[in-house]
Amino acid sequence: MDYEAKRPLMEQIDKSLLKHTVAAGTRDGGPEILDAYLLQGLSETHYYLKVEHDFKPNEVEALLQFVDPLVVARECWEERDPEKGFPICDLLNEINAYDRFPLVDPTQGKVNKLSALRAVLNQNMAEFHASLLNMDKEDIIAKSEKIAAMRASHTYMVYDFYFRPEDVDTLLCMKNPLEFIANQWPSDVERHLDLQDWVGEAISYYAKGAVSQCRQDVTEEKPSVLDQLHSNMREIGQRSSQAERPRGGEAR
Questions:
Q1: Residue 146 gets which letter from DSSP?
Q2: Which of 7, 96, 213, 232 has its CA 20 to 30 A from that of 52?
Q3: Cα–Cα distance between 252 and 249 in angstroms, integer?
Q4: Measured between alpha carbons, how far is 162 from 166 in angstroms, rounded to an integer?
Q5: Which residues contact 48 (CB under 8 A, 6 or more apart)?
Q6: Cα dist. 71→9, 32, 64, 79 in Å?
Q7: Which residues is 103 bridged to in the sheet?
Q8: Rounded to 10 degrees, what is the CA torsion of 189, 126, 173, 68?
Q9: pLDDT value at residue 193
Q10: Separation CA 155–CA 158 (nearest Å)
Q11: Least confident of 74-88, 127-141, 222-236
């Protein structure tokens, strides 16, 4: 990610580090040892964000929603799993940052989380698109259904789906929420179904910990038109086969 795109965040964390440094130095009675440790932690996180971290657009947008993004990033850093790197958006939700730390506009907390989710969905789509550029034509053709599902899911989730607060929280916990929605996406024959209910139920199943059964459970509750047609065709075929069987074991 180029520097200009993340400049607003870099300027904010610069101001934050300087503010905390001045505050510690001007404290009545002088700074305490704890202040020194806190400044050391903030300085380390500041350096990492400025020099080493490979930012994704949704991470910049998410941190800019907080009054003091450096303090929030430091909290995320302390809670990270080193083996998983530093997935800022995932960590923000793990530490309940949107409820614990002051937001630039406190009255828009839920909207900010939704904005963060839409940024994640956009990032998922951008990464999927980039992955297609490395494939040959035959592989792309083989993925035509997946491509159609990803594109349709992205458009619907970003512009049309009505999110409940719990939907936002559940999707933000996923590594790739767009791919999850695309995997639930109904076929063209099933488009008469209510997508709001279809997608909402899929998210609810995931939230209940039934990920592996999600598509099966949704299908059982709302059998698709295509499945019904296949079932009817099998029944007709079975009846026809029985009617053609020779009676009394005689060969035809």
A1: H
A2: 96
A3: 9
A4: 12
A5: 77, 86
A6: 13, 19, 12, 13
A7: 66
A8: -150
A9: 60
A10: 5
A11: 222-236
- 117-154 confidence digits (pLDDT tens): 888 898 899 999 888 888 888 888 888 889 989 998 99
Q: What is the pLDDT of residue 249?
A: 41
- Mean pLDDT, the chain, whole residue set: 78
Q: What is the pLDDT of residue 223?
A: 43
| Contact (CB, 8 A) for 124 and 70 | no
Q: How many C-beta neighbours within 10 Å does residue 55 have?
A: 17
Question: At a CB cut-off of 8 Å and minimum separation 6, what does 32 contact?
Answer: none
Residue 68 pLDDT? 93
Cα–Cα distance, 183 to 177 (Å, whole number): 10
| Number of CB atoms found within 10 A of residue 211's CB | 13
**Is the pTM here over 0.90, yes or no?**
no
Q: What is the DSSP letter of 194?
A: -
Tell me the two tokens of residue 242: 């029985």
Euclidean distance between CA atoms 219 and 43, whole angstroms:
52
Identify the DSSP state of 160: T
Amino acid at 19: K
* Strand partners of residue 204: none
Q: Tokens for 137?
A: 């034509």
Q: 13: which 2 tokens?
A: 């964390």
